[in-house]
Specification:
alpha/beta; 7-stranded mixed sheet; 5-stranded antiparallel sheet
């Protein structure tokens, strides 16, 4: 991977002529994303993210922390002990420059150092699962990192709305053997293109079933304005 997402964050943080990122998925055309969005303050965040931060307590792990905005809010406004992880080296450098105290390059599947009261996976937290078949692996790992009484706060979207309706009001979904929330993502930045990667959107019922299968309780905390939701998983 070229770490283009990380480069874009680092360029923004260091004023190195940042540009918009171009994103494209297997079911949507190219779209521009302003990298400034990843640097938003608590007041600029969607209600789902604000709610997740409000519910966070104790020792917290921010998975896929990106530019560190959620971590900074919890660290500075709530005085929580936050560990921030991302697979992007440049994202972690960006977090460190912004003042995130404990930011490390790590894949969640390789994280074993300690346990947490709150584990956050925000901005389509299920995305890192990649495919539906990987849910058990990730949920089992996340569960193993929870302290007694701990919680996993995760958000996603039901992207069924992106598919066309047929004449009787049902949704027309191509390739019926594959879960409709499994996408491939491609990003481009400053003329470079990243290798495509798998990204998973999970509808709430599917997440709930996967959670139950892994010995986790699943609660719907909040629904957003656009088929998105925040869920809380606990043992």
């Amino acid at each position: 991977m070229k770490d283009l997402f990380g480069k874009a964050m680092f360029d923004f943080q260091t004023n190195n002529s940042p540009e918009d990122i171009i994103t494209e998925t297997s079911i949507s055309e190219e779209d521009e994303m302003s990298i400034a969005y990843l640097f938003r303050s608590y007041n600029e965040m969607p209600k789902l993210e604000q709610k997740a931060l409000q519910l966070s307590f104790g020792k917290t792990l921010d998975v896929g922390c990106g530019a560190g905005s959620h971590s900074l809010s919890l660290q500075n406004d709530r005085n929580l002990n936050v560990t921030s992880i991302d697979i992007s080296e440049k994202a972690i450098e960006t977090c460190q420059l912004r003042g995130v105290k404990n930011a490390i390059v790590r894949n969640i599947l390789d994280f074993e150092e300690e346990k947490f009261d709150t584990i956050l996976l925000l901005m389509n937290g299920t995305g890192i699962f990649g495919k539906l078949e990987n849910c058990n692996q990730y949920l089992s790992k996340l569960k193993s990192l929870l302290n007694p009484g701990g919680q996993i706060l995760i958000d996603s979207s039901d992207i069924i709305y992106m598919f066309d309706e047929d004449e009787d009001g049902g949704k027309w979904i191509p390739s019926g053997d594959k879960y409709y929330g499994e996408l491939t993502f491609t990003i481009s930045y400053k003329g470079e293109k990243e290798k495509s990667f798998d990204w998973l959107y999970l509808d709430y019922n599917t997440l709930q079933n996967a959670a139950i299968a892994n010995g986790l309780k699943c609660e719907l905390i909040l629904e957003g304005e656009h088929y998105d939701y925040l869920a809380k998983l606990s043992i």
